[in-house]
């Protein structure tokens, strides 16, 4: 594959990968490091593979980097006192395009998006990743299973549980 094709692929997944990492680690700098490392590893190890293989490979690398960061954070929380909440950068980029909607609709969408982001952050990591890979990245079950290093049945289970939790949490936002 050409360098241009790899650059185009990385540009196409950059923002969504960053959002996924932000949801998972809740720290902007860590999320940027995770995405950058995942991109570097994909180029270093898999640039010679067929472009159709890149999405599951990239998201598998990203998933592993997120899991590693969770492990580091777990150990750090045991070894060191908790940081001040004001030090954390939990600002996840807005996903909705405000466009030319009426003000009340913008307000409702903003509140709904904030609740969705909060609900996604509260999901267990595997459920969060299954939801984001399937619904945000549009990967099929097989590619998601490859990315998450699990069976297709596990993907379906994690996704089902994530959707049930989100539906329960966000019930008031839906008619």
What does this structure look like?
With 175 residues, the chain is mainly α. It has seven helices and no strands. Helix 5 runs antiparallel to helix 6. It is globular, with a radius of gyration of 17 Å. Mean pLDDT is 81; it is low at 83-89.
Number of strands: 0
Counting H and I runs of at least 4 residues, what is the number of helices?
7
Residue ranges: pLDDT <50 for 5 or more in a row?
Answer: 83-89
Please give the oligomerization state of what you see. single chain
Write the element-wise H/E pattern from the N-terminal end onward: HHHHHHH
Helical fraction: over 70%
Evaluate the radius of gyration: 17 Å
By helix and strand content, what is the structural category? mainly alpha
* Average pLDDT reading: 81
Apparent shape: globular
Termini separation: 47 Å
Give a short account of the largest sheet.
none
Strand content: under 5%
